[in-house]
Amino acid sequence: MGSAMRSSKGVTPLAIWAREHMRIRNKHVVNIMSEFLGTFIICLFAVGSGAQYRLMPNESYMMPVLGGVSALVIVVGIFGNTSAHVNPAVTLAMAVAGFTNWLVVPFYWLAQMFGGYLGAGVAYAIYKHRLCVSEDEICKEAVGIFSPLPSSPVGTVLLDQTVTTAILLIFLFAVIDTRNMKVPKHLIGIYFAAIVAGNTFAFGRNAGGVLNPARDLAPRLMAVTLGHSIDKIFMNGAEHYWLGTLFGPLLGGVLGTFVYIFCVGSHLDDTTGTEDDDLENVSEKTSQSILNSDDWGAKIPIPTSMGINPQLMSPTISTKNPYCIY
Fold it and tell me: pTM score, two decimals?
């Protein structure tokens, strides 16, 4: 019976109806939805695993790490055919490199922050009955589940997040550049989970291994919304360490982009014998105004001298671009 209801391509009638009547044609709206949902899942898992660790203090700190990397694998699996960044640092890096239009950056950032904000709120709601002593008081025990509360100086936090996020971006470009590692699509999520876990295991004590301003700042805002002290959430004594977790990843993302382009990507040979051959002529095409196209910001001619296959960086949904950028 079930097989009889399927089309020859395995698509159910419900999926066909939704595609015909509910499909959004504007690629930027789709991308913004992906940014929102992807960051929602990441913060849902991050805060949820933080609450689990808080309730089981004798357990290893690997619990929140595994929760975070599991969320990353899930997001890659769900949004692998979109250009979701789910990280403001990655969005900024893509814009600096020229792969994302600057006009869409604020919208991506807002979607990421809002998704992370709601994800943290939902995770808190799920664990509230275990964290709160009474309904009349603020859950003081929950203050540490939203974002890391490091005791390191803000300068150390800034340096930590700059270096680790730069490593993340270098690895990102290496994975999605077809001239480099040629990672199979089904292994992309595992590779990203490995680099995030490695960064966290090596440097997590300094700043919690955030690597993502939306994952850090959005849950802090949710904590303040729920009534927690701003001083407790954003400061460590006189240290505004949240500035390190906010600006460190942004600086690191840009640094990692330049390092890969100038030290690795520009020295790789262009692919030959595939559909990527025609990309060699991208820099010769006349640039058209993004605002004059139906899909503004979707295609930006990138000189091949930059060293990265521009098709892989295009912030559009395309069968030729099956990789999700994180």
Answer: 0.76
